[in-house]
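Morning run. Coffee first, then this:
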Amino acid sequence: MKNKVMSLILVAAVLAFGSVAFAETGQVSVKAISADTLNKFRQQTVDLREQLKAKDLELRGLYGYEGIDIRRVDELEGDIKEIKAKLRSVAASMNLEPCNCLYS
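And here it is:
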């Protein structure tokens, strides 16, 4: 009985220390921004974000077809990359760090 309890405590300790070590290496620094800056970014990128949503929906629709048009897929993926680059540019001009979703 003592051996079982000791082994459970040992396993729990290893898991606890392992998760703490993993959490420390996986941390991402977060930069605080003002609500005004965020609102300005949203206002300046309304058209870009709408274009991105429309292109993404069209691309998802194409992936659902059996006879997929590869040229159109390539064109849409290129358009999406350009829009994301423009969003990153606007964010950089406002000293904002873009989210990881813009890097794909």
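The domain at 32-103 is CATH 1.20.120 (Four Helix Bundle (Hemerythrin (Met), subunit A)). Good start to the day.
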